[in-house]
TrEMBL record:
Organism: Streptosporangium canum
One Pfam family from the record: Peptidase_M28
Protein name: Aminopeptidase Y
Stretches assigned to the Peptidase M28 domain: 263-477
GO-annotated molecular function: aminopeptidase activity; metal ion binding; metalloexopeptidase activity
Length: 520
C-alpha cells in the first residue's frame, strides 16, 4: 500500500472505533500496543495472494478439489495448521463425522421423447447433494404441480404422502420446489416407487437468488435415498411436465455417512481469555472444483491477518477458525457451536465471517447487522449493528462503496447468530446476478453473476479479483485490530485487564449455497 492508503486505513480504525465502540480505546504506538498503521502495513495483499496460490496448488495435486473428506481438504488443513503453529498459536484440529458425497462420474439427464434432447449439467440441471445412484429410462410423472406457478411461492408439491396417490411405480417423479425440504420430497417419492426424482424451481420471477426460475441448487441433507435425484431450472421442469415425456436419468455417486473431517482452530496466547474475538472462514471447497474464491479467498485473508497478529500483546483474546464441511450444510461451524458450554459461548463476544471476498464481478457486501434495509432476513443479535458500522466506516474512510447483504443463513455465521453471538463480515457475491445499479456503483458487468464460476471447476486462481481481495483483506485486518484492543466489545461483558496481553487460558474444548435444503 502507498502512504495515502496507510493514512486512510488509520483514519478508518480511528473513525470506526469512535463510531462503533463509544468506550473503545485503541492502544497508541507509545503504549503497550502496536501502531495501527504499522499493523495495516504488515498485512499485505501479495502475502494473502500467496496463500490463495498455495491452496490452488494443493487442489491441483489432489484431483482438482479441496472438498471436506478428501485429501485436498486434509492438505489444506495441514497447511493452515502448520503456518499457525509456526506463528505461535495454540492450534486444535477438531475432528467430526459427516455424511460425505460426491459424483463419481457426471450425472446425465436426456429427454428421449417427445424429441431427443440432452440437458446440460450445471446449466440445465444439477445433481442434488446425497443423491443416490442408478440409471433409469422412464416416464416423467408430475406430483401435485402448480403450472403456471402462483404469483407468490406456495407450492407444496411432494410434501405429503397423499401427493403420490396414484403414482406409477418405476416412473420418474417430477416435483416442484416449495414449502418443505428437498429430503422429504425425495424420500416420499422413493417410498411411492419412483425410480428417480427431478425437482425443478418453482417459477416466480425475482432478483438474484430470489429468482425462482434459475437453476435450483440444494442438498437432500443426508444419504437417505438410493435413487437418482437432480434439480433443474423452472423452464426445464415446465417442459418435462408435458404429457408423455420420457427421460433417461443416470447418476453414479458416492456417499459415506461416517466420513471424518476437521476444523482448524487457532488461539492467541495473548489477551483476556474471557473476552474472545473470533474470526472464521470455511476452508473446504465443493467436490466439483478447487474453491479458490469460495472460499480460499476468505481463508487466505484471515490466515495472513492471524500470522501478522500473532505477536500483538492484545487486550482481548483472538481466535481464528477454518471450518470444514461448510459446503455440506455449515457442518463444521455447527459442530463447534453445539459443543460449546454456556460459559464458553458467553466468552465469545463477537464472530466475524469471511466467505467469498474476491468474486470477479464483485460488490463490497457487509452483513446487515441491524436490518437497515428492512427487507429479507431480520437483524442479527444485539451488537451486530456495531460490527456493520465498523466495516462501513472502513469502506467510507478508504473511499470505496459498499452495500448491505442479508444474514440468509448460508454461511458460518449462522450457528453463532443462532445462539445470540453478535456477528458480521464481508461477502462479494455468489451465484446472484449483478444489477445495473450495482454495476454503476461497483463496476463490473450487469446481468452477469457475481461469480460465474460459483461451485464449478473454473473457481481457480483465475477467478480471483485482486482488487477485491486486497480491499477486503484490509478490512479484515482493521476489524481484527480494533476488536483486539477494544475495552468494550459488541457482545458486552466487563472490561478486560488494563494492560493487554495479561491472562491465561485457551481453548476449553476441542466446529448456493442453500445448504439447509429448505426452500425459501
Amino acid at each position: 500500500m502507498r502512504a495515502r492508503a496507510h493514512k486512510s486505513l488509520l483514519t478508518a480504525i480511528t473513525a470506526a472505533s469512535a463510531l462503533v465502540l463509544p468506550v473503545v480505546s485503541v492502544v497508541p504506538a507509545s503504549a503497550a500496543g502496536p501502531d495501527p498503521q504499522a499493523f495495516s502495513q504488515s498485512v499485505k495483499a501479495a502475502a494473502v495472494k500467496r496463500h490463495v496460490e498455495r491452496l490452488q496448488r494443493i487442489a491441483d495435486a489432489n484431483g482438482g478439489t479441496r472438498a471436506a473428506g478428501t485429501p485436498g481438504h486434509e492438505a489444506s488443513a495441514a497447511y493452515v495448521a502448520d503456518k499457525l503453529r509456526d506463528a505461535g498459536y495454540k492450534v486444535s484440529l477438531q475432528e467430526f463425522e459427516f455424511p460425505f458425497f460426491r459424483e463419481v462420474t457426471p450425472t446425465v439427464l436426456d429427454r428421449v421423447s417427445p424429441g431427443a434432447k440432452t440437458y446440460v449439467r450445471n446449466t440445465d440441471f444439477r445433481t442434488m447433494t446425497y443423491s443416490g445412484s442408478g440409471k433409469v429410462t422412464g416416464t416423467v410423472q408430475g406430483v401435485d404441480l402448480v403450472l403456471p406457478p402462483s404469483p407468490e411461492p406456495s407450492s407444496t408439491s411432494g410434501c405429503e404422502a397423499s401427493d403420490f396417490a396414484g403414482f406409477t411405480r418405476g416412473n420418474i417423479a417430477l416435483i416442484q420446489r416449495g414449502t418443505c425440504n428437498f429430503q422429504l420430497k425425495a424420500e416420499l417419492a422413493q417410498a411411492a416407487g419412483a425410480a428417480g426424482v427431478i425437482i425443478f424451481n418453482e417459477g416466480q420471477p425475482g432478483e438474484g437468488a430470489d429468482d425462482r426460475r434459475i437453476l435450483l441448487t440444494g442438498t437432500l441433507g443426508a444419504p437417505t435415498t438410493n435413487i437418482p435425484v437432480v434439480s433443474t431450472t423452472f423452464a426445464v421442469g415446465d417442459g418435462l411436465a408435458a404429457a408423455g415425456t420420457t427421460v433417461t436419468l443416470s447418476a453414479d455417486t458416492e456417499s459415506d455417512p461416517h466420513r471424518k473431517t476437521r476444523n482448524v482452530l487457532a488461539e492467541s496466547r495473548w489477551g483476556d481469555p474471557d473476552k474472545v474475538v473470533m474470526l472464521g472462514s470455511h476452508l473446504d471447497s465443493v467436490v466439483e472444483g478447487p474453491g479458490i474464491n469460495d472460499n480460499g479467498s476468505g481463508s487466505a485473508g484471515i490466515l495472513e491477518t492471524a500470522l501478522k497478529a500473532s505477536v500483538l500483546p492484545t487486550r482481548n483474546r483472538l481466535r481464528f477458525a477454518f471450518w470444514g464441511a461448510e459446503e455440506l450444510g455449515l457442518l463444521g461451524s455447527a459442530h463447534y457451536v453445539a459443543g460449546l458450554s454456556a460459559e464458553e459461548k458467553a466468552k465469545i463476544k463477537l464472530y466475524l465471517n469471511f466467505d467469498m471476498i474476491a468474486s470477479p464481478n464483485y460488490v463490497f457486501g457487509i452483513y446487515d447487522g441491524d436490518d437497515s434495509d428492512a427487507t429479507g432476513a431480520p437483524a442479527g443479535p444485539a451488537g451486530s449493528d456495531k460490527i456493520e458500522q465498523l466495516f462501513e466506516s472502513y469502506f467510507t474512510a478508504i473511499g470505496k462503496p459498499y452495500t448491505g447483504t442479508d444474514f440468509t443463513g448460508r454461511s458460518d455465521y449462522g450457528p453463532f447468530i443462532g445462539v445470540g453471538i453478535p456477528a458480521g463480515g464481508l461477502f462479494t457475491g455468489a451465484e446472484g446476478i449483478k444489477t445495473a445499479d450495482e454495476a454503476a456503483k461497483f463496476g463490473g458487468e450487469a446481468g452477469v453473476a457475481y461469480d460465474k464460476c460459483y461451485h464449478q471447476a473454473c473457481d481457480t486462481l483465475a477467478n480471483i479479483d485482486d482488487k477485491a481481495l486486497a480491499v477486503n483483506s484490509g478490512a479484515i485486518a482493521t476489524a481484527a485490530f480494533v476488536y483486539a484492543y477494544s475495552r468494550t466489545l459488541p457482545g458486552g461483558g466487563a472490561p478486560g485487564p488494563t494492560r493487554p496481553g495479561t491472562g491465561g487460558g485457551g481453548l476449553g474444548h476441542d466446529h448456493d449455497h442453500d445448504h439447509s435444503g429448505v426452500p425459501r
